[in-house]
Amino acid sequence: MNNNPNCFSELEDIVPKTAYGEAFTIYMVAYEAWRRGLNVSLENVYSSTEYRNHIHYRVFDNENDESFTWERPLSMPKSTLRIISSKSKTRRILTKEDVPTVKSKVLNTTDPDLITSRLEGFLFPLRISSIDSPEHNEVNYIVSDFQEIKTIIKEKKEEFKSNKMLIEESLSHEHCHAYIVNGEVVGAYRNVPLYIKGDGKKSVNELLKEINELLNKIPSDRQFTIRINKEIEEILNQQNHSLNSVLKKGEIIFLDKEDEKNFSVDITDNLPSNLKNDLIKVISLIPNLSQGEVEFIYDEEYDKYKIYAINTQVNLKKYLYPIEGSARFIPKAIIDYYFPETQEKYLSDDTPKFYFDYEIIEDEIQNARLSKAVIPQYPYEPNLVAKLITFTSSYDGIKEIIKSNFFKLNINGEFNVINENQFELILAGNYQDVAYFHDFLKSQPYFENIEFKDHHFGVRVGYSFNGLPIPKSNVLNTTENQNIEDQEITSSLKTNYNNNNLRKTPKTIKNIIEKIKNKF
């Protein structure tokens, strides 16, 4: 596979698992701003129309201030949002400007013969939906010919709650996405099933191991790792191959069904300049729109395209983690646009890879127990280093000793229990402070087998203690019989809260909030 390992190494170990799902876009744009030294805060906002909470985040410095939901700025006018939220409105505007769009038609009937007669000129496959409006599809089916339309309506009639039918072209095998920011196509991909591609040298078994290494790097709440089993062997047999076969250079074996397009291939550099210019024009035709994703159908052989929709609530994962081609870091382009004074002004290439925690956002803010969290400034000063220290000890007061040094040195990192007597410390801070910490451990008789080496992975800002039992004297609001594991509250987030939220939280949460409050 022809991937860009540089981007993966840059992002590896900085996305917390709580940000693997829908929160991925929020986290990555906020992270990109944060690592440039910009201020970042996140807050819970209740939607009275959707009856749910949303995470909004604010990015600001002394010159600019912008708030976002997903990757979309909240400063976008509602009139613009209403247009792009409606495929039919978007298509009407584009069609008036002679932009080719996917054909669609709303029919107020479920009569298959009547539907067939009104679809002259439509290209299969088609998406057929029962809807209350063109923007709210309730039932979706992909059909490849008129007979399938009749079959679907006849067999699934009980599922259709309305006689109103939306019919639209849906050439899924040519479905592409391009992200435009400030008049530039900054990334484009097409959806594909998972596959392996031969290089004329490696066996299928070696290619499978290679694609698994790639899949393991994708932050996902789904498990995509390929297991070599009878199903995979059957797929290979159907294509006259085995695990030992060596595929010709460029030869492809698909490992998923044709309609399971969970992965992406980067096509940014393959799009002709005239198509890129047309995609940029699409964004410019929508009033007050400077960024967004254009979803389109593209026939590369004939260099023809049709616009499907414009999206501004996008999961950016497929741009950042294609299974082939170069990764496109869309968050960089977004922050460049809104904060141009920070372009290429990362704090330091030599600074340890810090990241901020998202767990409190997921657990406390989104569940309305806290209203706001302010991320501490990205740690930066000259001569920052990250080290891993492992040691053994049977001393009962180990937590207090380590914790006092975290406080005294204002250092970032974590203290982890490997087993009953073996521990590890991840430390990130000024090289002199880290060296002092190391020398301190060596000077104490109850720390043994101390090993000290560089740490090249992500370091969560703040500190945490994982896996130690809390002394009974320090247990808050618990009974003597409760077995509590110590998960020290980290200083990775500053929190703001109101009294109403505080009164609604359990007593233990009040104590946690008070601990956080006292730290700041």
TrEMBL record:
Q: Which organism does this record belong to?
A: Salinicoccus kekensis
Q: Which UniProt keywords apply?
A: Ligase
Q: What is this protein called?
A: D-alanine-D-alanine ligase-like ATP-grasp enzyme
Query: What GO MF annotations does this protein's record show?
Result: ligase activity
